[in-house]
Amino acid sequence: MAAPLQSVTVLAPAKLNLSLDVVGLLPGGYHALDMVMQAVDLYEQVILRRSGRLTLRAPGSRVPLNEKNTAHKAALAFFHYTGLLAGADITLRKNTPVRAGMGGGSADAAAVLVGLNALYAARLSMSELCALGASIGADVPFALMGGTCRVQGLGDLLKPLPPCPDCWFTAVMPGYGISTPAAFAAYDRVGSPFHPDCAAQEAAIRAGDLAGLCAAAGNALETCAGGADTAALKQALLAQGARAALMTGSGAVVFGIFEAEGPARAAAGALQATGRQVYTLRPDRGGARVVRAGR
Ligand code: C5P
Question: Which residues form the GHMP kinase C-terminal domain (predicted)?
Answer without folding.
Answer: 231-276
